[in-house]
Amino acid sequence: MIRPILRLGDTTLQSPAEPVAALTTDIERLLDDMVETMYAAPGVGLAAPQVGVPLRIFVIDLSVGRDAKALITMINPEWVDREGMQLEEEGCLSLPGFNATVPRPARAVVRGMDRQGEMHTVAGTGLLARALQHEMDHLDGKLFVDRLRGIKRDLIVRKVRKLARAGKW
Ligand SMILES: [Zn+2]
């Protein structure tokens, strides 16, 4: 089932998410829905808080469903390593229509549980490192705008408020 994606302004997006206590059927359904919602958007990553569930889960698929092996599921992920810096344009399904150049690590390594409850480690450079940091940020209640300098952030937030006032957000 495709779930509605929350947008900037919703408090769930701005609060740290809680660890998953057990892999229940509800969690399995949530994972299915998150993948379906990500592909439908379409997007390359989605975190549980974006669909209103304050749990430490994200999915990433840089192939957007074209390559079955590309789907990454992370439950209760933790940082193993981050190094270097890259600057690229970035967007977010919770901020449709907005992009900004965001500093991110050049290489990132994250460890967490997969869907079967097995621990796995994912290491990435370039876009994958960016996606890992972006989704980890969601679990800490941070959006990419929170990584921007004041003026750039304020510009986007002001535009969103204007859209919200016009009933277009
Ligand atoms: Zn996002």
Structure characterization notes:
The protein has helices at residues 25-40, 126-139, 150-165, and strands spanning 45-47, 57-60, 72-83, 86-90, 100-104, 107-113, 119-125. The chain is of the alpha+beta class and 169 residues long. It has a single domain (11-165), classed as Peptide deformylase (Peptide Deformylase, Alpha-Beta Complex). It has a five-stranded antiparallel β-sheet, with helices on both faces. A two-stranded antiparallel ribbon has the order 4-5. A hairpin with a 5-residue loop joins strand 6 and strand 7 (119-125). The model has no long low-confidence stretch (mean pLDDT 97).
Question: Topology, please?
Answer:
Elements: H1 25-40, E1 45-47, E2 57-60, E3 72-83, E4 86-90, E5 100-104, E6 107-113, E7 119-125, H2 126-139, H3 150-165
Antiparallel strand pairs: 1-2, 2-3, 3-6, 4-5, 6-7
Bound molecules: zinc ion.
Residues 92-94, 134, 138 line the site of zinc ion.
In short:
With 169 residues, the protein is an alpha+beta fold. The chain contains three helices and seven strands, in the order αβββββββαα.
Order of helices and strands: HEEEEEEEHH
- Average pLDDT works out at 97
CATH topology: Peptide Deformylase
- Widest beta sheet: strand line-up: 1-2-3-6-7
CATH first level: which class? Alpha Beta
Question: Major beta sheet, specifics?
Answer: 5 strands, antiparallel
Q: Name every ligand kind in the structure.
A: zinc ion
Helical content band: 25-40%
CATH architecture: Alpha-Beta Complex
Structural class: alpha+beta
Number of domains: 1
Count of runs of 4 or more consecutive helical residues: 3
Fraction of residues in β-strands: 25-35%
- How many β-strands, per DSSP? 7
Overall geometry comes to: globular
CATH 4th-level superfamily? Peptide deformylase
- How far from one another are the termini? 22 Å
Measured on Cα atoms, how large is the radius of gyration?
A: 15 Å
